[in-house]
Amino acid sequence: MAKHIKKVRGLKILTRKHPSIQSLMNEKHAPRIHGDKVWASSYFIMDFLDDNPPPEKTSILELGCGWGILSLYCAQTFKANVLASDADRNVFPFLKLHAAENDVKIRTRISRYEKLSDTVLSKQDIIVGGDICFWDEQVDALYDTIKRALKNGVKTIIIADPGRPTFHDLAQRCKADFRAFLIPYGVSDPANYDGYLLLISN
User: Fold this and answer.
1) Given CA atoms 132, 174, 147, 139 in this order, what sign does their dihedral have?
2) What distances in angstroms separate CA 7 from CA 10, 24, 91, 116, 136, one per listed residue?
3) Which one-letter DSSP state was computed for residue 53?
4) What's domain 5-201's superfamily in CATH?
């Protein structure tokens, strides 16, 4: 494996010390909304999907995709039709870099998750998102997005987090109003991480 590239579940991930990553970081379009690395909660969802694989050609939407590692994993591993969305347009050069490195193609969309249309949501089978509920104002926005997604026929929603208070607020609301389960979760690859999965089914 080349220097500053690690392989996780068959996917090549460039570290922050990789020259191509550093070059993007030094440009004026460096990420603004915490999209400056691969966040660990994505690995929880990868591990869960490994044990509970979706059928091929499943339509999957990732909220707050950042560098897009989870989206690329779903496309490569499950041949899923993936739409990767993020409010920060500056994360997409990092996503495109990883897509090229892994020879994977996915669709992208610049959007806050509460701005995603009902039409977009209605075309999804699964919605995933890791480390996307870290500000207080995101609790209402994400709850409303989940509610609209379920109303529009999305079958499964998986949100992962290390356990922030905002995430637990969201989880409690979802458990009260939807078929939602909060599960402690941990992985050992690529490192030891602990957190939670919020699983919501329609």
Assistant:
1) negative
2) 6, 21, 20, 32, 34
3) P
4) Vaccinia Virus protein VP39 (3.40.50.150)
Of the candidates 49, 40, 72, the residue with the CA atom closest to the CA atom of residue 161:
40
Domain boundaries along the sequence of the chain:
5-201
pLDDT in tens, 20-73: 888 887 765 555 544 456 778 999 999 999 999 999 999 999 999 999 999 999
Cα–Cα separations (whole angstroms), residue 115 to 30, 63, 136: 23, 11, 17
Is the Cβ–Cβ distance between 70 and 185 less than 8 Å?
no
Cis peptide upstream of residue 165 (ω within 30 degrees of 0)? no
| Distance, first Cα to last Cα, the chain | 42
Question: Rg (Cα) of the chain, in Å, rounded?
Answer: 16
Residue 127's nearest CA partner among 36, 192, 54, 32 is 54
The answer to whether the predicted template modeling score (pTM) of the entire model surpasses 0.90 is: yes
